[in-house]
Amino acid sequence: MPLQASRIHDFGVLLSYFGVLSIDFGMEVDLLKSTFSALQVALNQTIEIFNHREDTWQRRYDREVEKRRNLERQLRLTQEALTATRSNPANRGIRLGPGKAHQRSHSHGGQQVLFGNQLFPHVGAPAQGSNTASCGVPSTSAGITKMFIVEEGGPDFAEGGSGYTVNEERFYDAIDAQLDKLHQDEACLMALKSVGDKLRSADAMPSSHPLYSEVAKVCEDRIGIIRNGFPSFNGEVGSVNNGWTILAKQGKIIICNREVESSDGTYLDPLQAVHTVHNVTAREMCEAFWDVQYRLDWEITVDQAPTVLEVCGDDTVLQYQAYKRIWPATQRDSLFWSHMRRLDKYQFRQDESVTSEGQIILDTWMVVNYSTKYGEDRLPPSAKTPSFIRLEVDVEMFCQTLWRPPSSDFDMTTLPDAEKLQSLSSEEQQARWEAAGVTRDSVCCRLLYASQINPGGWAPATVVRTMARREYPHFLQRISDFAISHTANTTLKF
Question: Which CATH superfamily is domain 178-488 in?
Answer without folding.
Answer: START domain (3.30.530.20)
